[in-house]
Input
Amino acid sequence: MNEETQLKLLAYVDGELPANERTGIEALIAKDSEAADLVAELHWCHDATTGTEAELKVPESREFYWSKISRQIEFESKQAERSASSLSDKWWYKMLIPTAGIAAIALVLTFTARPPVSQDGTGTAAPTASEPVFEDANVYEYYDEQEKMSVIWVTTDDSNELDSPTRDPLADDDQLQ
Amino acid sequence: MSWIRQRAIRWLTMTNFSNRSLAFYLTLLVMAGLSSSAIAGSAHSALKVDATLVWGSKDVAKDKKLAPATKELQTKLRKNLKWEHYYRINKSSLQLADLKPHRTRMSKECILEVKRLSETEVNVKLIGEGKIVVNRRHSLAKDNSVVLGGPGKHKDAWFVVLQFN
Output
């Protein structure tokens, strides 16, 4: 008896054999004593094991027990998802490093930049070091309220100290006459 | 908001601590950089300063290439100052969008520095031959323009006219 026939006999005992094969197997059992012995032994094993399994009882209620399993499955699937999409794969994380570099440069420039000097009115050049103050300058200040204009007249030569820059009102009166 | 909340929860539940701490410090750096730039760069609306170097003379200039100052500026200056003719020698503009000093060279020996102190106040510094000749604060509420001037060698005068816009 080959293995395939043995498996068919096992299926017959378990009641899992298709109906079209059943008559063929029954005929085999009737005429083949070896097949009949195997079927008898399988019936004996089936009867001996059925109803003798120890029943395991869990301490929790059925709902709670299954909810624990459900939570564990959910946790494991989330863990798998998290490891699949790690932090370093995220687009914003990839952008973070160059952005941080730019930010660092911005910080350095903010706190170290010095005033630009225009060489020709348009370009820029490095500023001179802190300049000394011209101590002997004489400053005359005048404010035109109507024009909202401050005039600061600076003389660096004593000979010009008393030379006022403003228009002489008497001279204007002469011109008017 | 729910997106931010989800991100925050995911952030807090990240298991890879080294990645999390690196990301935290990088984010902190980005925020610091952006904040400092914002504070230094855009705390105030930009103030435009037009600076004009003007030569004032009693007589008409012999050099016909010299461009007269604008009529508006001539009228303004002639009203207060004794010279009859005003010529534009150089013109420059400064954009004061931050609180840092901005400089422009008005002539070979003359540098102008304007620094915005607040929304309503600027500091004007005039540097001649490497020395600070004028260093004054000006209220923008009070002044539309500031004229810095000095005598020339031949009864003429030079002026740096600042107009605030």
